[in-house]
Amino acid sequence: MHPIVPSGHRLRRLRRSAPLRVLVQENTLTVADLIWPIFVREGVNLREPIASMPGVDRLSVDLAVKAAEEAAGLGIPVICLFPYTDPAVKTLTCEEAWNPENLTNRAIRAIKAAVPDIAVMTDVALDPYNVLGHDGLVVDGVILNDESVEALVKMALVQAEAGADILGPSDMMDGRIGAIRNALEGAGHQGVAIMSYAAKYVSAFYGPFRDAVGASGALKGDKKTYQMNCANSDEALRLVARDLAEGADMVMVKPGMPYLDICRRVKDTYGVPTFAYQVSGEYAMIKAAALNGWIDGEKAMLESLMGFKRSGCDGILTYFAPAAARLIRAGL
Ligand code: PBG
Fold first, then answer.
1. Which alpha helices (H) appear in 163-296, and where do they start and end?
2. How many whole angstroms separate alpha carbon 38 and alpha carbon 17?
3. How far apart are CA 155 and CA 108, in angstroms?
4. Catalytic residue among 254, 267, 287, 309
5. Pick the CATH number of 29-329 from 3.60.20.30, 3.40.980.20, 3.20.20.70, 2.10.260.10
6. Closest C-alpha to 65, from 122, 121, 113, 128
7. How many other C-beta atoms can be found within 10 angstroms of the C-beta atom of residue 293?
8. 155-169 pLDDT per residue, tens
9. What is the pLDDT of residues 180-239, one digit of tens each?
10. 205 CA to middle of ligand 1, Å?
């Protein structure tokens, strides 16, 4: 679209007053656009702050249920669970990942029983359960693809069994979407949706998350053999095409703010439900600047979230979800 604008046209006319500005506003941010990622831990009535994510806590399962109630009350449609796994149950073979009684699966059951109106999304990757902190199985320093996919399938099935509505494979192994989709079909879980972390980049912005799930100390090396190179864009389209062909219902771009060009290309090319993850480091940057009094935290938060909508995203995974929902509901 190349609009013809007569030279000298006074474009400020439509910015003159609040009613005219809202009349011609192109994009909107609503509570229904938000997915809230939360961190769960063992224990009862425990809330443990995460130093690098001010305002975000690890919650015991009972408090995670309360968070889900709060989210549903605000109209947030999806809550996404990430476990802080006791280092004692981490192994090289990661079997805790497909333990039907692991923390995530207990949290899914508790939330689905107490808050049937909220959809529960999960993370499908081995890093919280891996002594080496990688998303796949590591043998002799190599991240094995097909063996990892077999493990991820087992993990996905127990999550579906526990009642997860949306599975989020975040591991970037090849072939995992097709394998998980086949397994779900075979096990009678045809209704479980998959949001593929299709274009997931190697990123310094995941730092605070790795503190939150206790993977920072564990991670040996980097994730460059499976996550994407931040210099690439065409490759993201090939990954999205492949994951859609294998049965993904929705796709995600991650991180968010440095990759809005990728969101736009994915949405324009495929027209499928497209999401972005405003990751922990993006949250931490805005929070840290706001806590220093250097920016207006609420305005920066809403502006950053609108940027995702403008870039074609259908929704955003964001740690700001409840705070943003409150402001949106208040009409700000
Ligand atoms: C790992 C995973 C990561 C995040 C979500 N799932 C980190 C990583 O790939 O190392 C990051 C989310 C965030 O930073 O908020 N499977």
1. 176-186, 207-212, 234-245, 260-270, 280-291
2. 39
3. 13
4. 254
5. 3.20.20.70
6. 113
7. 8
8. 999 999 999 999 999
9. 999 999 999 999 999 999 999 999 999 999 888 887 777 888 999 999 999 999 999 999
10. 9
Q: How far is the CA of 212 from the centre of ligand 1 (A)?
A: 10
Position 194, amino acid:
I
How would residue 3 be classed by pLDDT, with cut points 50, 70 and 90? Answer: confident
Q: Which atom of ligand 1 is nearest to the CA of 200?
A: 9
Query: Which residue shows structure tokens 């831990």?
Result: 41
- Which is the closest atom of ligand 1 to the Cα of 280? 15
Spell out the residues 6+ positions from residue 249 whose beta carbon is closer than 8 angstroms to its own: 193, 194, 195, 273
- For residue 135, pLDDT beyond 90: yes
d(Cα 102, Cα 94) in Å, to the nearest integer? 12
254 is catalytic: yes
- pTM reported for the whole predicted model: 0.97
**Ranges of each domain in the chain:** 29-329
First to last CA, the chain: 31
Residue 25 DSSP SS3: coil
